[in-house]
Amino acid sequence: MDADLRLSLEKADARAAEAERRLAEADWRCAELQHQLHNTLAVIRSVVRRSAETGESVEDYAMHLDGRLSALGRVQGAVAADPQMRLDLHSLISDELLSFHAKEGEQVQLIGPQILLQLRAAGTLGLAFHELATNAVKFGALTRPEGRVTVSWRIAPASEPRLVIDWAERGGPGVAPPARKGFGQTLFDRVLPYELKAECALSFGAGGVRCRIDLPFTPRIAAEP
To answer: For an engineered disulfide with 122, which of 66, 82, 102, 117 has Cβ 3.0 to 4.6 Å away?
Structure first.
């Protein structure tokens, strides 16, 4: 009977420990969701304001705002599906391009290791890839069947590692820098450096746009797989 009692107590202790773990996890997720909601609303307000500042007309404003909010929605939906609230960089890019009917293996090539982005980084980078994809579909490589987009990323080894992402178009028409500074330019010039401490370089030329996003590879940006 002593052995049976001891076994029962051990099982009860295990169930209690599991219940405590689940409760702590629920509390953590609740706090994370509140933090996520606060950040999301801040990003939405910023997108709405900056889209209004750079829109050429009401119709232009409405169209671009809808696309940007849809990009944010895709990120939020994907992150919510992960218990740790992270998003794979490969999925972030492929989903954004797929929303423009550009499929990996056809006009799109994605190359790089698995990187799990934290929510804030995923949202900001999602907007960046939305702007690049929009430009490629309207003016760049994805305007032509022979056009191609290659997105590659790597961890640059250093005393403080960096995540380097390269977007490269080829086979499209030659593109020139925009005549006026719109939302996309503001995003790369001001928002990514402010939000993610990123260094961004955009170039316009034969075949389409090239863009490099170089940012610190820290726990604030990405998590261990």
So the answer is: 117
